[in-house]
Amino acid sequence: MLKVIRQATQEDIHEVVAFLMKAGLSTEGIKNSIDCFLVVEDSDNQLIGTLGIEVQEKIGLLRSLVVTSSFESEELFALFQEILKLAKEKELTRLYLISNRKASLNFFDLLGFQQEKEPFVDELQKFVHAQKLSTVDNCITMSLDL
Question: For residue 25, how many other CB atoms are within 10 A of its CB?
Fold first, then answer.
């Protein structure tokens, strides 16, 4: 099945918000940063995945990774490759992610992310999404210099 990864547009806002709400994720700030989101659509133009970046100056924080069960691991790698490309196009200098899934650490290592010493780094204080995640147990912060 052919899948397309593309940068989200203003027309995608309502569908992306509904997709994230269905997954139980916060949609705060998405309307103002939809141009920093990628969407994945199947051959029927149905939304089957999303990944975004919350941006503060030249720093980005990955957020809102949601994929359906039809998503394969190679496609997940392609999605992350595209979000790294988007981060560079937006001229970000560093990209962070926060995860509480230890099983995903090897995947992020392969992409070049490195684990931070502290679970919450000062540089993320202004990020709404990071503040929400700071209350979740066993979170790990990783960063990638771009």
Answer: 18
